[in-house]
Amino acid sequence: MFSVPEGWLAGEVRDGFYIDSMMKRAWAAELKIFWQLQEFFLEYDIHYRLDYGTLLGAVRHGGFIPWDDDIDLTMTRGDYMKFMSVCDKLPYPLRAKTIYGDDDYYNQFHTVVCNTRDRILSYNEERMELYSGCPFIAAIDVFPFDYIPRNENDRKYQKLLYNIAFVLANRYDKEHDSIAFQKDLAALENQIGGSFNGAEPLRPQLFRLADRIAMMCPENDSDEVTYYTYMVTLPGAGIRRKEWYEKTVELPFEFITAEVPAWYNKVLSVNFGGYMNSSKHGAGHGYPFYEEQKEVLEFHGNLKSYAYERMEN
Predict the structure, then answer these.
(1) Residues 6+ apart with CB under 8 A from 96
(2) In the chain, what percentage of residues exceed pLDDT 90?
(3) How far apart are CA 90 and CA 154, in angstroms?
(4) What pLDDT is recorded for position 277?
(5) Class of the CATH-defined domain 17-146+238-312
(6) What is the pLDDT of residue 306?
(7) N or C: which end of the chain has fewer CB within 10 A?
(8) pLDDT value at residue 204
């Protein structure tokens, strides 16, 4: 049973950085989502690992990096697609936002699991009661890891094909009516030996095609894995040996535990170099993550004062 320890929600200083009570409540909300997902993954035999800054936090801090505010999970593509096939069965009120299930979520290649099924941000008493008094929508990210071809020619071809689909998807809003865009689209259709469904929106189809390209390489033809988007956006970054992820160990993460790659030292060395040297670089997104949500709720008069007043109670 998920239970926040007495006193844990109070503000505190960690590594010289002050974490206020609202952030602790946001952390608690994310931890509960994570705990719910762990139970769900166990039920459906889906395997995950902590990764990126969350893995660093587990190893170096025993939980969140004090100046960070998210949880990142990774899965091999097989586990990820199994998750996609059952994510509509997530326990209430969790919702998985994914290119495979949401028409309004088509420009990210990972899945975001949030603690609401509402499509519009609003003040929600029930959500606050379920998630430690956090008035904001909390979420965690789940990234698929794909295999990179061992053969250099196959590697180059897959990356080229992915790049075409990825770039076209991101050019769509501004250029889809242009001659250049249509020419590049025709070239992509020629490469894949098929055409897009004219009766459906094109941009989501482009994102889903790019995702299918990312999973082209069989495991037996590969020695390395990555979140394939990084092959385009961060060339050379984030590539790991697949054997680093074949086994897991369990580490404490705040007041729960989590699975991490058994070779986490190698993973962290690729990501962060001398990873045990603590430095305040901040999160990869705006910190705190809920700043924009706070502005929206306050603008609509929905962020009631007692949401803050009761934090210290």
Answers:
(1) 83, 87, 88, 90, 111, 112, 113, 142
(2) 71
(3) 37
(4) 75
(5) alpha beta
(6) 43
(7) N
(8) 87
Q: How large is the angle between the packed helices 152-175 and 202-214, nearest 10 degrees?
A: 170
Task: Check residue 304 and give its pLDDT.
Answer: 64
pLDDT reported for residue 302 = 75
Q: What's the chain's Rg over C-alpha atoms?
A: 21
3-state helix, strand, coil split of the chain in percent (to 5) is 45, 15, 40
CA dist., res. 275 & res. 258, Å (int): 19
CA distance 138 to 71: 10
Residue 87 CB neighbour total at 10 angstroms: 21
The beta-strand segments (E) located in the chain are 12-14, 17-19, 49-50, 72-76, 95-97, 111-114, 139-149, 222-226, 240-241, 248-253, 256-261
SS3 191: helix
pLDDT tens-digit readout, 56-95: 999 999 999 999 999 999 999 999 999 999 999 999 999 9
Measured distance CA(222)–CA(108) in Å, rounded? 24
Which pLDDT score, from 0 to 100, does residue 283 have?
Answer: 56
Nearest-10 crossing angle of helices 52-60, 264-272: 120
Read off the amino acid at residue 225.
V
Amino acid (1-letter code) at residue 164: I
Q: Give which of 59, 85, 120, 207 is closest to 96, Cα–Cα.
A: 85
Cα distances from 217 to residues 41, 73, 144, 155, 229, in angstroms, run: 25, 22, 14, 9, 15
C-alpha–C-alpha distance, residues 259 and 274, integer Å: 22
How far apart are alpha carbons 304 and 297 in whole angstroms? 9
Q: How much is the pLDDT for 129? A: 96
DSSP SS3 for 73: strand
Query: Chain centroid to CA 67: how far?
Result: 18
> Residues 255-308: pLDDT tens digits?
999 999 999 999 999 888 887 776 665 555 678 999 999 988 887 777 765 444
